[in-house]
Amino acid sequence: MCQNREVFFVVVAQPETKSEHVNILADCLRRNYKGKYKLIYMTDNREGLGDDITAISLRSGGDDVLDYLKQLHSTVNHITLILEPETVFLGDITDAVSKVVNSGHISCVDGAYSFYGYEFNYKHMPSIDAKIICFAGPEKPWQKDCLRLDWVKSNYRHTKRAIVLGSASTLQSDLDSIGNMKDGAAIFVVNHTGFKYPIHADYWVTLHPECWHEWVPLRKAAGYNMDFKSIGYNSQNQTPKGMDRGSSDWGGMSGLFAVKCAFEEGFEEVILCGVPMTDTPYFWGSELHYKILPYRAGWERHIDKLKGRVYSQSGWTKELLGSFM
């Protein structure tokens, strides 16, 4: 993993580069690179970029782009790798990045990096074992013809992301900390958050389906959207009364239950907001009436399923899983 050094992936804006292309590249990197890294986009227009991308002006300080890149590359604790926005990753690229870095230059590296373009038949997947594929011809992965190819469609895309909103007092600051990364993500509200926090909910989940008949009218009375999917606890995965489906529990309180439900609904990545798993008061001011610490064991038992897919913005879960940004 590049000797545990942070990798600066640098993308330089081209006339045809759109913010959406860089946002997709950012999602692909997060899914497929397991080391420490930063995505840097050199541009004079950061409009539409995700807040997880570091944008640096092409005219920053009057320096030439090449001089800036040389400065980055000379940083002792970092490694710089230039990426074209029209790059597709075929699965985990961690080892491939190390091979490219160790090669000392960006070129075709066996088992790591290759160009896809004029010399290939666009109807077929490249007959190479490289993990990092740069489109070198006139066609680009975001074009309709290329997106019809299964290997492009399955790899060049946004991550299916969910945000779980718990009930801790850190909820608002946690949400604020991820900036515009909540745009386009599915929102899972948990328990009382469903009728106490004003937000459009895509899912409402709870370990307490016995309270469902009381909570739903409260959300409706608050004027919040009602076109959500409801998931309640049931040890046999049977559907609780009045809800859309049931699911069993992982033993880590409602926040972990929401993560499990998100995975079952097909989401690849989950960001926890207001789920610190500490003795933090509720966001509406009430104190907790039970002990949190015993339930941390449920998270620890399922850590292999969570690490690298679930992030938390505060508390013990942030220490356990790391923050999204």
How would you sum up this structure in a few lines?
The protein has 325 residues and is an alpha/beta fold. It is 28% helix and 19% strand.
Structure annotation, total helices: 12
Strand content: 15-25%
What is the typical, i.e. mean, pLDDT? 88
Largest sheet: 7 strands, parallel
How many separate domains make up the residues? 2
What structural class should be given to the helix and strand makeup?
alpha/beta
Query: Helicity, in percent?
Result: 25-40%
Order of helices and strands: EHEEHEEHEEHHEHEHEHEEHEHHEH
Q: How many distinct beta strands?
A: 14
Anisotropy-based shape:
elongated
Low-pLDDT sequence parts: none
Q: Which sequence of strands runs across the widest sheet?
A: 12-11-10-9-8-13-14
N- to C-terminal distance: 20 Å
The radius of gyration computed from the alpha-carbon positions, rounded to a whole number of angstroms, is: 22 Å
